[in-house]
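User: Sequence in, structure out. Go.
Assistant: Echoing your sequence, followed by the structure tokens.
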Amino acid sequence: MPDPARLFLALWPDEPVREALRAWQRAIHWPPAARPTALANLHLTLHFIGAVPRARLPELAGGLERPCPAFELVLDRFAVWPHGVAVLEPAVVPEPMTALMATLADALRALALPVDTRPYRPHATLARHATHARLAGAAPPPLRWPVNAGYVLAESAGGYRVLRRFD
């Protein structure tokens, strides 16, 4: 596949949410090997798509457009997952988010694109290589993310780039 695009669907934070994520990053004692996620790259993946020929991008832009209900996502739990992935995740996944995930999964299937079959665990990745990371003191307040600006189709290419916004 010549020059594929590595794609994913995500919630993309506005400036206040991005700064709240940064506050959580600053509240963590990071081990020396940790690689905190760059501020501009903080996001919450909805579906990882993978490598897709760039020639399909116009088709995807139309085929992935679905209504996005407004809801509030509360990220309130810091965790370090296997392989040292430090995340901020919700204690409760709001029902409108579950519905959005199902709607987008249907859209991906209609486009003959893969849908991960593992249980979905929404999270914002705060750092990688962060085994033994821990809160340095009291946790910041829960991050309240008002999801009212839709979702994005983004590309991973040495950083992240938004290709299309779906409102």
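User: And one key feature?
Assistant: Residues 95-110 form the longest helix (16 residues).
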